[in-house]
Structures are given as structure tokens and as C-alpha cells.
Amino acid sequence: MRIPGSIALVTGSARRIGRALALELAARGAKVAIHYRRSESEARVALSHARDAGAEAEMFRADLTRGDQRDALIEGVLARFGGLDILVNNASAFGPAALAETTPEDWDEQVESNAKAPFFLARRAGLLMVEAGRGKIVNIADTAGESIWPAYLPYSISKAALLGVTRGLAKSLAPHVQVNAVAPGPVQFPDYYTEDQKRIAIERTLLKRPGSPDDVARAVVFLIENDYVTGETLHVDGGRHLL
């Protein structure tokens, strides 16, 4: 798939990695739908940057844990741009909770945001893509979905589910739509991380240095442009998944 002229929706793209993904696609000539839930001011900044890059872009608000708002988001993108070629499921909930500390609310928040919402967004978008005869879906996963972090149990399990969602969608939407995942490592730390937590995360990579959101963006671009990869998880984690 050629990115110039394509229509891309990037969820959670007001800030952090999501913004880097949206702006990379904008810089490469895509028409970009910038999604946000609460960060309206930051979404406006992302929108301004995308338009400054010469891209046709718009911002959309939606709570992706609500089915009616997921549907409204897709319909809004279709109404604004006339189609949808690329979906990047980046929006995510992240928080610590070990087994003894996990509450039903922790579980619901993580699984709803990180597995259920991407599945149903991709189902809606993917079936439209099948009708159009082409499409790309990229889910932003995490190495935690493979190694399972005991201190982040619901989060890890939800990301493991997302890897299953990726493979299931790849089978269900073939041959016209390719579905893949990118699993980042320490490319952008949570705001509350201490310097010690950052150091430990870096030491757990083979490359012994942090990555950047741009590393993730380039991986997403690769998966969009390559038409013979589907059901794959591309690790952008400095080799952390090997340890």
C-alpha cells in the first residue's frame, strides 16, 4: 500500500507515541484522523503539526470503551474523508496491579481499553476494508503481552489478548486486509517513572539504551507498505523480548 493519499485513523494520537505515529503518516502524505479521549488541547497541537506538514487532517473525540462512540468515530472518519485505508490501534490504558492488588475495576479498564476496543474498532474498519478490497490494521502491543509482568498483571494479560486479536483478525480479514502488531519496549517512559525505574527498563534490553517513538513509527510504516506480511508481531524493544 502506498501511504500518500491514503486515509489513516490513529487512536490515542494526541500525545506520546500516538502523536509520533500520526505525524509520521501525515509527513508521508496520508490524510490523518487524530483521535483523543481527554487530551483536547494536545490533540489540537497534533492537528496543527499535521496540517503544517501539508496533510489533510481532522481530530475526533471518542471514549473507545463505549460501543456507540467507537461506531461514531468510524462514521465520523468516513463522513470527513470518504473512506478508511489504515487503522492504527494505539490507544491504551496502562497501570500497575499485582495479583493481590488487582481489582475488578483494574481488570475491566485494562481489558476494555487494550483488547476489546481494538477488536471492535478493527472489526468495523476491517469489514469496510474488505468491501474496498484493501486495508491495513496495525495494533500497538507490548512485550509485556509475551513475558507477562507480575507487577502489571491485568495490563500484561490485556496485551497478550491483543496479540491474539491480531492473529485472529489476520485470518478473518484475509486475503484483502493485512493485520499486524508492533510490540515496543522502553521507547517512551510513563511520566511517573523514576530514574531508577528507567535504568532498570533499559538494562533489560540487549541494546542497553532506550528507543524513541520514531522507532515505533518507522516500524508501523514498514507494516503498512509491505503487502506480504500479516499476523506478525514486530518487536521494537531493543531485544528485550529475548531476555
General description of the model:
By secondary structure, the protein is α/β, with parallel strands linked by helices. The protein has one domain: Rossmann fold (3-Layer(aba) Sandwich), CATH 3.40.50. Helices cover 48% and strands 15% of the residues. It contains eight helices and seven strands, in the order E-H-E-H-E-H-E-H-E-H-H-E-H-H-E. It has helices spanning 16-27, 40-52, 67-81, 104-132, 144-147, 153-173, 195-203, 213-225, and strands at 7-10, 31-36, 57-61, 86-89, 135-140, 177-184, 233-236. Strands 3-2-1-4-5-6-7 form a seven-stranded parallel β-sheet, sandwiched between helices. It is globular and about 45 Å long.
SSE layout and pairing:
Elements: E1 7-10, H1 16-27, E2 31-36, H2 40-52, E3 57-61, H3 67-81, E4 86-89, H4 104-132, E5 135-140, H5 144-147, H6 153-173, E6 177-184, H7 195-203, H8 213-225, E7 233-236
Parallel strand pairs: 1-2, 1-4, 2-3, 4-5, 5-6, 6-7
Helix pairs in contact: 1-2, 1-8, 3-4, 4-6
